[in-house]
Design brief:
alpha+beta; five-stranded antiparallel beta sheet; 21 helices; rod-shaped; six-stranded antiparallel beta sheet; 657 residues
Length: 657
């Protein structure tokens, strides 16, 4: 069967249609074969074959252009991802995924160096199915990836398992085998160019079958690696910037806090200084410090006695030294004072405030002399600026105490002259003495307790100054007179005996030697005060005779000695003190306990003779004496108390009661 030869133009048109349709190269090759089958002349066939070759070249060029277009699109997309960088891992996953897609490989992955471990690790993988491969780590120079990182050059192999250019290790080969990889292409992630470039990782594309990677594929992967390097460097720069910004913000906050602390310290110092200059008292300073530090504040003197307190702590502290001259201190109070003195000494040694037993204590000093301490409660978390403010407050309080003490010493010297004149000649001009006292702010017509204090040795010279410190803030006055120190102070709710005992303890601590103190009063007016002084001096002599040096007592507390020594000879008071419970019992019940006790003593303590004198049974005497013991205490028959009871019974009998 013969074919009619067809015009070459028909075959040329067919080639153009196939090119326009994007047909594969194999279909373009069939056009020349079809012309040969259709009986084309040799001349026409040659023309068709030439046209086919030209069409194949055009087809190859178009395919390269489309591939380049896809590569450029991928690169532009990657650049867009970098421009909107939010998550480094997401960008790296996108680059690895595009590398796998553009090169058409089974898998792609990216490794980064671990500076601490000194090796590289898998950061991102795409298409990997082996957990062993995904956790693979490579030392520098090991395997294809280690060589890429070491030389900063791309490497490709059609079959890694048999390629002896690379240093094979058991762990790397096991991971590659487990993943099933054969052909591998790796390129470095470089920052900078030339010999000064820094390798910060590597990008890989790999197939599970043998494959030779073309130069344009290597170039494409290098372009993607460059983008990955930029992404990593940008992310690191942004992280460094965030850290720097955070550090800057933290530094700015510290500077702000420091500036605020300095300003607050200046304002606080100005406030405290102004308070002192305006004549503020210790309680005013304590109140200001409590407000500034948001806590409770107490001020104590050098012996631990409270001078003032603001808030719930500080015990019974008040502006008058906490009743130290009247109320006294119990055992707990003395222990508390001792603890505060110990803490203040620690603060003096450390030259700063110390935290003891849930409170801050700062010593108040005049040189090395311990004036007292400032105590802060309720602020265990006291920080640096507030602690320095607390310490400055103690300095201001020290200055105020020194100023007050200087004024008090001056006033005391002037008042002491008044007391000396009063004790020397109380009847010379009583009204004038009272007027002088009022001009000095001291009312002699008000009741006062008089204390006479004496010590021996070198401490005698320190006793006058100690008396001024003891009275500081308490509204009293002291003066040296006839070898003793005389103190006049408000009663404060305590009797002269209790006041004398408290003064003996405190003055002894201040002078460092035993101080004997006699109390008398209360007395009002020049004459009564002078008489109280005479009684106090007699009591001092009695205490010395009784061997009670370093103690304090009043005439009334010396029993019958007080009756003998006292100017008023308070017989009724002595009898009531000694026999009061028995007299009251007899009066209420019609018994004869007083008569029985007198008979018992008159008979020399003989029960038999006493029952005959009383005309009762001996058991009755025993029962009455048991009642006496219940009312007077178990020591009623000791020699000392028995003597006082016998004297009281004799005075009671002589009074005709």
């Amino acid at each position: 069967m013969s074919h009619t030869p067809q015009s070459p133009a028909r075959h040329l048109r067919r080639l153009l249609e196939l090119l326009a349709a994007g047909a594969p190269a194999e279909e373009l090759g069939t056009v020349a074969a079809e012309a040969r089958r259709n009986g084309a002349t040799a001349e026409d066939l040659a023309e068709v074959e030439q046209a086919t070759e030209a069409a194949l070249r055009v087809h190859s060029t178009l395919r390269q252009h489309r591939r380049r277009e896809a590569e450029l699109t991928a690169l532009f997309d990657t650049a867009g991802d970098l421009a909107a960088l939010r998550d480094l891992d997401a960008v790296l996953r996108s680059i690895v995924r595009r590398a796998r897609m553009l090169l058409g490989t089974d898998t792609a992955y990216l490794t980064l160096p671990d500076e601490e471990a000194g090796d590289t690790f898998m950061r991102v993988t795409d298409g990997s199915v082996s957990e062993l491969f995904q956790n693979l780590r490579l030392q520098l120079g090991e395997g294809l990836g280690g060589l890429v990182a070491q030389t900063a050059r791309p490497y490709a192999t059609p079959d890694y398992r048999t390629d002896d250019r690379f240093l094979h290790t058991g762990s790397i080969d096991a991971g590659v085998l487990d993943e099933g990889l054969v052909a591998i292409l790796g390129v470095p992630l470089l920052l900078g160019s030339g010999s000064g470039g820094q390798v910060i990782g590597a990008l890989f594309a790999a197939d599970r079958t043998p494959r030779t990677f073309a130069p344009d594929e290597v170039a494409l992967l290098c372009s993607l690696a460059d983008h990955a390097a930029i992404a990593i460097d940008t992310a690191k720069a942004m992280a460094d910037a965030r850290i720097a910004l955070a550090e800057l913000a933290e530094a700015n906050a510290v500077i702000g806090e420091h500036s605020a602390a300095i300003q607050r310290a200046e304002e606080s110092h100005d406030r405290l200084t102004d308070l002192v200059l305006r004549g503020g008292d210790v309680s005013d300073v304590a109140d200001a410090v409590a407000g500034l530090l948001k806590g409770d504040v107490a001020v104590h003197d050098g012996s631990g006695r409270p001078l003032t307190a603001v808030g719930a702590h500080g015990g019974a502290a008040s502006g008058d030294a906490g009743g130290a001259h009247g109320g006294g201190e119990d055992g707990a109070g003395a222990a508390e004072a001792a603890d505060l003195v110990a803490a203040a000494k620690s603060s003096r040694a450390a030259a700063r405030a110390v935290f003891r037993d849930g409170r801050w204590v700062c010593a108040m000093l005049a040189g090395q002399e311990l004036l007292g301490c400032l105590v802060l409660y309720g602020r265990p978390d006291l920080d640096g600026p507030d602690q320095r403010l607390f310490e400055r407050s103690s300095v201001v309080t020290s200055l105020l105490l020194l100023l007050r003490r200087s004024v008090a010493e001056t006033e005391n010297r002037v008042r002491g002259d008044l007391i000396t004149d009063l004790l020397t000649a109380p009847d010379r001009d009583p009204a004038g003495l009272v007027a002088r006292g009022r001009r000095l702010g001291f009312d002699l017509d008000r009741p006062h307790i008089l204390l006479a204090a004496r010590t021996g040795g070198e401490a005698r010279d320190r006793l006058a100054d100690a008396a001024v410190q003891y009275l500081f803030g308490g509204g009293g006055v002291s003066a040296e007179h006839e070898g003793a120190v005389v103190l006049l102070l408000p009663p404060g709710g305590a009797g002269p005996g209790k006041a004398a005992r408290l003064a003996a303890g405190q003055l002894g601590q201040l002078v460092g030697s035993p101080v004997t103190v006699a109390g008398a009063g209360p007395a009002a007016g020049p004459r009564a005060i002078a008489e109280a002084h005479t009684e106090g001096v007699r009591c001092l002599r009695a205490l010395r005779v009784l061997g009670r040096a370093g103690q304090g007592a009043s005439v009334a507390e010396l029993g019958f000695l007080g009756v003998l020594l006292g100017d008023h000879h308070d017989v009724d008071g002595f009898v009531t003190t000694a026999l009061g419970p028995l007299l009251e019992y007899d009066a209420q019940r019609g018994t004869q306990l007083v008569r029985t006790l007198r008979a018992y003593f008159d008979c020399g303590g003989s029960l038999t003779r006493a029952k005959e004198d009383l005309h009762v049974h001996v058991n009755t005497v025993v029962q009455r004496l048991d009642r006496v013991q219940a009312l007077l205490g178990p020591d009623w028959n000791t020699p000392e108390q028995a003597l006082e009871l016998q004297l009281a019974l004799r005075l009671h009998l002589l009074s005709g009661a």
